[in-house]
Specification:
single chain, flat
Length: 104
């Protein structure tokens, strides 16, 4: 169950990271509220996952999911560059996440 909590915590981390872009410096009320709610849910789920998972593994996976998802959504939604090197680096992060899951 902890891995499920951790996975969803990572998804909500993506939500608040991308949400920050849409708050326009916290000047837009709806994106700001949704971003703050995503932050709270993400940290709450991470806390639940940490009940049984090692903190180093859980934190690395949580930030990895957030990093990969945010980078991919940045490419898709925000028109950020999708260079071969950037995509390869994202792939390496995914390999790290999978590796940590396999050894934890």
């Amino acid at each position: 169950m902890s891995w499920i909590f951790l996975f969803f915590a990572g998804l909500f981390e993506i939500g608040w990271a991308i949400g920050l872009k849409y708050t326009d410096g916290f000047s837009k009320p709806l994106p700001t509220v949704l971003t703050i709610v995503s932050m709270i849910v993400s940290l709450g789920l991470l806390g639940l996952a940490l009940k049984t998972l090692p903190v180093g593994t859980a934190y690395a996976v949580w930030t990895g999911i957030g990093t990969v998802g945010t980078a991919l959504l940045g490419i898709w939604l925000l028109g950020e560059p999708a260079t071969a090197v950037r995509l390869a680096c994202i792939g390496l992060i995914v390999c790290g996440i999978v590796g940590l899951k396999l050894v934890a």
